[in-house]
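ok new one. same drill as before - structure tokens go in, u give me an amino acid for every spot. 234 of them this time. try not to just spam alanines like last time pls lmao
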């Protein structure tokens, strides 16, 4: 069963989200605030594929704080933030904290389910590789990417990646030295039916540079191709 944690303090929105996800085949666990979401996560031993978190929740833990806590506990869970149109900086902050995607209110059921499905597919593929003892490894200069364990190594030292970051790195490693435009990266990682904006690519690239570059402000590996996108240089 595909398991999803839904944290939203507005009951009508939460019920709307849960009803549509259940129709799409997801088992839903509901939380009305951040503290409750973290309690449910612990009670279920982290056995969730995806979490949907509203950014603006009352109490000590808003959506951003919950996102940060969940990402510390798991690099594999898919995280989607629910935001208002006016929360532009919060969207970027959420992505930098480890969220995979965001959905802007108001949203349609088809948009939400499409976003969740895309993230779930990534999680399922990673789990399948681990279950099947998939051991293929891609090397690129001082880096190596293990496709089974979803591990990136730099000079023999591990670098933690989220599902999105892993897929971007896998795409780079499979196309070394090739200029990849933002649209191609977006479609490859987030899926052909992705509704969102290309800036989500830029935020994830910024986050990856902080992890893989010796000097993130002067990147040598994830190089900007002006007016197009990015390329990987070993």
């Amino acid at each position: 069963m595909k398991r999803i944690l839904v944290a939203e303090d507005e009951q009508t929105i939460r019920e709307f989200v849960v009803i549509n996800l259940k129709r799409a085949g997801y088992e839903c666990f509901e939380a009305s605030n951040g503290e409750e979401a973290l309690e449910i996560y612990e009670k279920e031993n982290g056995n969730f594929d995806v979490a949907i978190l509203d950014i603006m929740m009352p109490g000590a833990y808003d959506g951003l704080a919950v996102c940060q806590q969940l990402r510390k506990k798991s690099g594999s869970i898919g995280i989607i933030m629910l935001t208002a149109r006016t929360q532009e900086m919060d969207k970027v902050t959420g992505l930098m904290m480890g969220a995979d995607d965001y959905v802007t209110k108001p949203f349609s059921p088809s948009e939400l389910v499409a976003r969740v499905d895309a993230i779930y597919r990534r999680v399922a593929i990673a789990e399948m590789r681990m279950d099947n003892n998939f051991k293929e490894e891609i090397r690129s200069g001082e880096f190596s990417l293990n496709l089974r364990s979803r591990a990136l190594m730099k000079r023999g030292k591990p670098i933690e990646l989220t599902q999105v970051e892993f897929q971007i790195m896998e795409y780079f490693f499979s196309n070394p030295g090739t200029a990849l435009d933002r649209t191609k990266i977006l479609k490859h990682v987030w899926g052909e039916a992705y509704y969102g904006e290309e800036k989500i690519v830029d935020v994830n690239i910024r986050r990856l540079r902080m992890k893989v570059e010796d000097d993130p402000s002067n990147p040598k590996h994830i190089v900007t191709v002006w007016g197009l996108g990015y390329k990987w240089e070993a």
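The first strand starts at residue 2 and ends at 7. and btw Residues 109-131 form the longest helix (23 residues).
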